[in-house]
Amino acid sequence: MSETNTTERLAEALCRLLPQTQCRQCGFDGCAQYARAIAEGSAEINRCAPGGKKGVEKLAALTGRPALEIDPEYGRELDPKRCIGCRLCHSACPVGAVTGIPKHLFAVIESSCTGCGLCVCACPVNAVEMIENGHVWTAEDAELAKKAYERTNARRRAGAERRRAQLEKATDNKSAVLMQALLMAKSLKKS
C-alpha cells in the first residue's frame, strides 16, 4: 500500500475519533484538517479540547504516540457548562452581549441580551441555553438594543478596516521589496 493511501486511511480513522465540533480551536479549519495534520505528523494529538483527555487517549492508541495532557494553548477540557471558548457565539451576537476570552469560557451578559437566539445556533457544543426570565420587552429595551447593535456593527467595521489596512500595508511592503529586488537584478544584469 502506498504511503499516501496509508496517510489517507489514518487521517480518516483519526477524524472519526474527533468530536466533530468543527470549532477550529486546534488551529485548523475543522476536524478533518486536524486529523490530516496528525496523520502527516505535523500536529500533536493533544490539541482537541472538546475531545478532552479521553479523546487524546483514543488518538494515542491509534497513532502509537504517548497520551499527552491537553495543550492549554488550544483550550481546556470541557467544563460542566460545555463551553470550549471557540468564540462563535460572540461573533454571532448582533448586540455584543456575549463576552469572554478565546479558548476560555464565554458568557452572555443577560442585561444586554435581546433573546435573538443567534448564539444558540452558532454554538457547536450546545453550551448556550435560552432561559425565560419573565421580562416583558419594552420600547426602551428596543431603543437600547438598536444602539447596542449600531455600536457593535461600528466596532466590527472599524476592526475589519484596521485589518484591511494592515493587510494592504503588508502587501505594499512586500511589493516594494520585490520591486527593489527586481531593479537590483536588472542593474546587475546590465553590468
The proportion of residues forming helix, as a percent range, comes to 40-55%
Mean of all residue-level pLDDT scores: 85
Strand order of the largest sheet: 1-2
| Beta strands, count | 2
Distance between the termini: 55 Å
Low-confidence stretches: none
Description:
The chain has helices spanning 3-17, 31-40, 52-63, 88-92, 118-122, 139-190; strands at 98-100, 106-108. With 191 residues, it is mainly alpha-helical. The protein has a two-stranded antiparallel sheet. It is flat, with a radius of gyration of 23 Å. The mean pLDDT is 85.
List the helices and strands and how they pair.
Elements: H1 3-17, H2 31-40, H3 52-63, H4 88-92, E1 98-100, E2 106-108, H5 118-122, H6 139-190
Antiparallel strand pairs: 1-2
Helix pairs in contact: 1-2, 1-3
Brief summary:
The protein is mainly alpha-helical and about 190 residues long.
Observed structural traits:
single chain; 191 residues; mainly alpha; two-stranded antiparallel ribbon
